[in-house]
Specification:
Keywords: Signal. The chain has two helices and nine strands. The chain is mainly β and about 220 residues long. The radius of gyration is 23 Å and the shape is elongated.
């Protein structure tokens, strides 16, 4: 009798596990990003610069994500938009710490049995708040004329698409993230000058990889089909 009950429990466990295939996902992820920055400040020339970072993600669902991230990068500009001579330039090395919430389209509609809906489900919008810690250098005719360190609040707003890769249990274990992010700085002095009526900002094209690290749970509908 005990053997029969034990066998039934094993069968039920196997059936339950099989029923969850395609529904399970990891709540926690670690990721890495690389991006190309473009400055939008009081300087006309928009030099391309680079940024790199790390990310920790909590997945409330597969399509509602909360992210804490750290980035290190730089911004440069030449030819200032004022009456000053155009031989002024700046370089600002920064470290940013930000928190974002991300909503993917798959949370909003039923994508099952629809190849088109299945492709759309991974588009996302994201927003949050962060702090930029900066080391600003201003140059006059190639010579360093001023240097200062400080911090500024910024608002990250991001659009993107996430490619999900699945393991043998149809659980997403790796994600490739392609995104375009506007970082609106709550200051007009990020470049060392205050001019005009708009605050400084910069945009970033980024590529990221996120890896599932545990906390497996189930979603209300199949993630993979």
């Amino acid at each position: 009798m005990k053997k029969l009950i034990f066998s039934l429990l094993i069968c039920l466990s196997a059936v339950a596990a099989k029923a969850q295939i395609g529904y399970n996902y990891s709540q926690y992820e670690l990721g890495f990003t690389a991006g190309v920055n473009t400055q939008h400040t009081d300087f006309i020339k928009k030099n391309s610069t680079y940024a790199f970072g790390g990310q920790f993600t909590y997945n409330f669902t597969p399509y509602i994500n909360f992210m804490a991230e750290v980035n290190v990068g730089a911004l440069r500009g030449d030819s200032i938009i004022t009456s000053l001579p155009s031989n002024f330039a700046y370089n600002n090395d920064y470290t940013s710490v930000a928190f974002r919430a991300q909503l993917q389209a798959g949370e909003l509609f039923d994508y099952s049995r629809s190849p088109f809906g299945n492709a759309l489900k991974n588009f996302y919008i994201s927003g949050g708040v962060g702090v930029l810690y900066t080391d600003l250098k201003v140059y006059d005719t190639g010579q360093l004329s001023a240097e200062s360190k400080g911090s500024s609040i910024f608002i990250p707003a991001k659009l993107g698409y996430e490619f999900k890769f699945f393991n043998s249990y149809n659980e997403p274990f790796l994600k490739l993230d392609l995104g375009y992010q506007l970082n609106y700085i709550m200051s007009d002095n990020f470049d060392g000058y205050t001019s005009g009526k708009y605050s400084d900002a910069f945009t970033q094209f980024s590529v990221g990889l996120r890896f599932a690290i545990g906390g497996t749970t189930s979603y209300r509908k199949a993630i993979h089909w």
